[in-house]
């Protein structure tokens, strides 16, 4: 069988068109793996900053709770007493005392830490 150039071109063109049409309609494997990679990349890109923000918020909440607990310092006081005698006259009395709380000078602070940047190779 001897083909001319135009006949072999038509034959090759038909095979190439069929191959391109088959590849265009093929959706097994490769497209799904690319989609998985893209979705996982978007998830990781969104999860990392979210976890950093959650860590900073929790750190700040613990600092606020610590400041609240340390600010609730009781002020010790004693009102005193008296020993009464006849006719309501006091025989002995002891005066009270009150120790005022010192204002707190050192407050806890939550530090906002950014993730460490890894240098590119």
Briefly characterize the structure.
52% of the residues lie in helices and 14% in strands.
Give a structural overview.
The chain has a two-stranded antiparallel ribbon. The longest helix is centred in the middle third of the chain and has 42 residues, at 30-71. The protein is 52% helix and 14% strand. Strand 1 and strand 2 (90-98) form a beta hairpin. The protein is an alpha+beta fold. The radius of gyration is 41 Å and the shape is rod-shaped. This is Flp family type IVb pilin.
- Outline the low-pLDDT stretches: none
The total count of helices amounts to: 2
Helix/strand-derived category reads alpha+beta
Strand order of the largest sheet: 1-2
**Share of residues in strands:** 5-15%
The helical percent reads 40-55%
Let me know the number of strands: 2
* Largest sheet entry: 2 strands, antiparallel
Give the end-to-end Cα distance, rounded to a whole number of Å: 60 Å
Mean pLDDT: 76
Protein name: Flp family type IVb pilin
């Amino acid at each position: 069988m001897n083909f001319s150039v135009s006949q072999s071109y038509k034959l090759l063109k038909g095979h190439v068109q069929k191959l391109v049409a088959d590849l265009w309609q093929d959706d097994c494997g490769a497209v799904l793996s690319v989609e998985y990679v893209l979705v996982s990349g978007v998830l990781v890109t969104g999860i990392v900053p979210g976890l950093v923000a959650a860590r900073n918020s929790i750190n700040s909440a613990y600092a606020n709770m610590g400041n609240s607990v340390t600010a609730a310092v009781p002020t010790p006081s004693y009102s005193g007493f008296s020993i009464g005698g006849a006719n309501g006259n006091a025989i002995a009395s002891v005066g009270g005392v009150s120790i005022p709380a010192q204002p707190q000078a050192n407050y806890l602070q939550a530090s906002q830490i950014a993730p460490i940047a890894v240098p590119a190779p």
